[in-house]
Design brief:
single chain; 20 helices; 2 strands
Length: 437
C-alpha cells in the first residue's frame, strides 16, 4: 500500500496537477464558473414559477411571460456570457488587455453562432420588419463553440501584440484609448476570419463541434450510468490524492454539466414534466443526491466524528458540522485527513458510487424527478433537492436515505481509523507524562 501511495505521489499527482493548472484549462474553468451567479438567479425564477399551489399558480398566470424574461437572459444565453468570461480569464493570464479580448471574442462568437434573420415586413402585428437574432443560438448548445471562439480570439490577439503588428499611440495617450487602437488590427483579422468561415465558406463551428462532442456528452453528463459513475469515481479519486477533483475535471465535464442543466431548465420552462426532462446526470444531481456535505458525502463522516472517543476527531467533527451542512468539506478532507488515507479513502470513493447507482435507478423509474433548476451549492441538500425537482418530497427523502446508506458504509472504516487515532493519542499522552515525570 505504501508503495502504491508513493507511486501516486511521484507520478500521477504531478501529471494531474499539470493538467489542472494548464492555462487554457484554467481559463475555461474560471469563465464557466463566472456564469454561475447568473444561472442560479435565473433558476430561482424558474422554481418560483412552478410552486405546486393552485391558488399561487392562478395568481401568477397573467405574469408568466414577464417572469420568463430573467431565465431567458441568464440560462438562455449562457454561451454568450461564457465567451466573455473565458476570453477575459485567458487574456489576464497572458497579461493582455482583458476588456479588448473579451469584446473581440464576443464579436467573433456572435458572427459565428448567431447570424441575424431579416424580416422584410410586419407579420400579423406579432413581429415587426427588421433583423432578429435567435436566442437559442446563444444558449447552452453553443457552449463548445463559445470555448473555441474565445480561445482562438485571444490567441490571435496575442499573436499580433507579441509580433508588434499593432497601431501604437504616442506616449501620454490614456491607456484605454491606446488599448483600443492596439486592438484594431487583431480585431479586424478576428472579424474577417470568423465572418469568412461562417458566411463565405459556410463552416458552422457550433454544428461541427456538436457533431463531434455530443456523443461524449451522452456518456459523461446525459443518462449513462457508466458515465455518471466514472465522473463520480474520478472526482473522488483525485480528492483522495489531495487534488481538487472538480478543478481537474471541470474543464472537461463542466461544459456538459452546464449544457445539461440548461437543457433541463429550458424543457421544463416549455412545459415538459420534471420526470421527462432530457438529462439525469447534471451537476445538480450529484450536488444534491450524492455530495451530501461535499464530495465523498462527508457529512456522514462528520456526524460519526462528532461522537468519537478520540478527542481530536470529536473536536474536528464538531467544528466541521456547520460547514458540512452547507456542503463545504475541505476541513474534513485535509484535517482528518482523507487525503492519502487508504482507510477513509475507500468509503470516500465507494459510498458515492453506491448512492449514485441507487439515485439513478430511482430516477429512471420515475420515483424521483430530474433536476429542473440550478441552485447555489451552499443549500442544505434535502431542501435543495426538494426545490430543484419541482418540489418533490421523494427527492428530499432520497437525500436522507443516501445519507443513512453512506453513514453505514463509513462506520466500519471510521472505527478502524478511530482506533488508530486513539492509540496515537495514548502514545502521545504517555510520552508527555514520561517527560513531565
Amino acid at each position: 500500500m505504501n508503495g502504491f501511495v508513493l507511486w501516486m505521489e511521484q507520478h500521477l499527482m504531478p501529471t494531474a496537477n499539470k493538467f489542472g493548472s494548464q492555462r487554457h484549462m484554467v481559463a475555461i474553468r474560471k469563465g464557466l464558473i463566472a456564469t454561475m451567479p447568473l444561472t442560479i438567479v435565473g433558476s430561482f425564477f424558474t422554481v418560483f414559477q412552478n410552486i405546486p399551489i393552485e391558488a399561487y399558480t392562478e395568481f401568477i398566470a397573467p405574469y408568466l411571460p414577464v417572469l420568463d424574461i430573467p431565465s431567458r437572459y441568464t440560462m438562455g444565453i449562457l454561451a454568450l456570457y461564457a465567451t466573455y468570461g473565458i476570453a477575459t480569464s485567458l487574456a489576464k493570464s497572458y497579461k493582455l488587455d482583458s476588456l479588448s479580448c473579451g469584446l473581440l471574442a464576443l464579436m467573433a462568437f456572435l458572427v459565428t453562432a448567431a447570424p441575424p434573420t431579416r424580416v422584410f415586413e410586419d407579420i400579423d402585428g406579432v413581429i415587426n420588419a427588421g433583423r432578429y437574432i435567435n436566442l437559442a443560438n446563444l444558449g447552452s448548445a453553443s457552449l463548445f463553440g463559445a470555448i473555441v471562439t474565445a480561445i482562438l480570439s485571444v490567441e490571435i490577439y496575442r499573436f499580433f501584440v507579441e509580433k508588434n503588428v499593432t497601431i501604437k499611440m504616442p506616449e501620454g495617450v490614456p491607456p484605454e484609448v491606446s488599448n483600443s487602437f492596439v486592438a484594431l488590427i487583431p480585431g479586424a483579422v478576428i472579424l474577417m476570419l470568423f465572418w469568412a468561415l461562417r458566411h463565405i465558406v459556410g463552416f458552422d463551428l457550433n454544428g461541427f463541434l456538436s457533431t463531434i462532442l455530443m456523443p461524449l456528452k451522452g456518456v459523461l453528463a446525459g443518462n449513462s450510468l457508466f458515465g455518471g459513475l466514472l465522473t463520480v469515481f474520478l472526482i473522488c479519486f483525485f480528492w483522495v490524492l489531495g487534488i481538487h477533483g472538480p478543478a481537474i475535471m471541470g474543464p472537461v465535464i463542466r461544459p456538459f454539466w452546464d449544457m445539461s442543466i440548461a437543457e433541463n431548465v429550458d424543457a421544463f420552462t416549455n412545459g415538459v414534466d420534471a420526470n421527462s426532462l432530457p438529462n439525469i446526470f447534471t451537476e445538480q444531481f450529484l450536488q444534491w443526491f450524492i455530495w451530501i456535505g461535499g464530495a465523498g458525502t462527508t457529512l456522514a463522516l462528520v456526524v460519526l466524528m462528532m461522537f468519537s472517543k478520540s478527542e481530536y476527531l470529536k473536536s474536528l467533527g464538531r467544528l466541521s458540522f456547520l460547514p458540512g451542512l452547507f456542503n463545504i468539506n475541505e476541513p474534513v478532507i485535509f484535517g482528518t485527513p482523507i487525503v492519502m488515507n487508504p482507510i477513509l479513502g475507500i468509503p470516500f470513493i465507494v459510498a458515492p458510487l453506491i448512492t449514485t447507482t441507487l439515485s439513478y435507478f430511482l430516477t429512471v423509474t420515475n420515483v424521483v424527478p430530474m433536476m429542473m433548476a440550478r441552485l447555489g451549492f451552499a443549500f442544505p441538500a434535502p431542501i435543495a433537492a426538494w426545490m430543484s425537482t419541482n418540489w418533490s418530497i421523494m427527492a428530499g427523502l432520497l437525500v436522507i436515505v443516501n445519507f443513512l446508506i453512506t453513514l453505514a458504509i463509513y462506520y466500519p472504516f471510521f472505527k478502524v481509523y478511530e482506533k488508530q487515532q486513539l492509540d496515537k493519542e495514548a502514545e502521545e499522552l504517555a510520552s508527555k507524562e514520561s517527560v513531565e515525570a
